[in-house]
Amino acid sequence: xxxxxxxxxxxxxxxxxxxxxxxxxxxxxxxxxxxxxxxxxxxxxxxxxxxxxxxxxxxxxxxxxxxxxxxxxxxxxxxxxxxxxxxxxxxxxxxxxxxxxxxxxxxxxxxxxxxxxxxxxxxxxxxxxxxxxxxxxxxxxxxxxxxxxxxxxxxxxxxxxxxxxxxxxxxxxxxxxxxxxxxxxxxxxxxxxxxxxxxxxxxxxxxxxxxxxxxxxxxxxxxxxxxxxxxxxxxxxxxxx
Amino acid sequence: xxxxxxxxxxxxxxxxxxxxxxxxxxxxxxxxxxxxxxxxxxxxxxxxxxxxxxxxxxxxxxxxxxxxxxxxxxxxxxxxxxxxxxxxxxxxxxxxxxxxxxxxxxxxxxxxxxxxxxxxxxxxxxxxxxxxxxxxxxxxxxxxxxxxxxxxxxxxxxxxxxxxxxxxxxxxxxxxxxxxxxxxxxxxxxxxxxxxxxxxxxxxxxxxxxxxxxxxxxxxxxxxxxxxxxxxxxxxxxxxx
Lengths: 241, 241
Known about the structure:
The structure is a homodimer.
Chain A: E1 17-21, H1 26-38, E2 41-48, H2 55-66, E3 72-76, H3 115-130, E4 134-136, H4 152-164, H5 167-170, E5 176-178, H6 186-195, H7 220-232
Parallel strand pairs in A: 1-2, 1-4, 2-3, 4-5
Helix pairs in contact in A: 1-6, 6-7
């Protein structure tokens, strides 16, 4: 299917099984809800990579549960051992209150080196082991933080890796990357999720939540989320906690 | 540089810093020794992925030590949680006594789904964090076990991922994959290592060693290694243990 089209699979054509990368954030939860609606038989993979915002793993578990995904692997991998990002370094400052003009332009200090490459490679390993036909992921390069590994050209390159670097790929059945949100705005993503009755109160987007998991409301991720809900004219149930 | 040419960097042109993927096997040790001789400032990454042959991690530590590599990360990641390979499943049989005609033709049950994609993605994360210019790896697609993710076309695809999916790549300084052994026969690899005074007694190749780490002598990896030493006319110090 075309990863940029969330409507490429009509309901009457069962698309097979897939591994969904579930971070616990708004985007991946929407992608998972979309895939469930499309009829994918889903397994989920979440990565416990030493992120400051570990409460998102609890969100990932909650989202998997409401979507009826029983095969959910939460894999620990200590990217903090390498260091190098405000998202894994508890002493680094997460940027706050940046303007619309700054967010998404340039690569911010919250960038985790090669994070999506690592996550996709793990999803690829899980998908091949499970015999899954696809990997579903919630990356988006419209209202995003400016990370290079969210762009469509990156996904296309990884698709080639998936084709050439796996047994199923060599056998002519490459595992397909499906990124239904790739070209949607944050408002369009939220509208899609609401149309699927996704409870966004289960999701966590903040890069720097407090010790009780409450969002800061001021990091890039919180600001993008708030702008999205505002554009839709909806209330964010998470912000109201 | 051309990854297939082990002599592309003359000694008088310092090639910068690199992360070497060090498994503890013969090939990666030779690649590391080559890179050290070439003048790379090396960090090493070994992956503890639930392999049956975990003694290779001790070999990796020994090789890093003799090569003077102080920055050596041994990263645990539980690929056995996904299952799917005789190399991570303690109950599966590792094939033994296969003929030359069988080894390297078809993908054997020892294939670990997407293993080199996972390893390269982690090396990419470490390399970008360390500011390294290159990743050195000992993959080889001549005398090899037939894994798809050892082939040059796979490495070329991953090179694109490294260029498009990292901050340094976007900034025009992509991390380079350097595979000095890609087109060498096992005998040529061993000849290279011996010319570099590499002690192969430190390395472990066996997929199914006994509880004391002694090689079985009969798996594909042992057979390829023995044939290589025989072709060179040298004695394998590890086989004599």
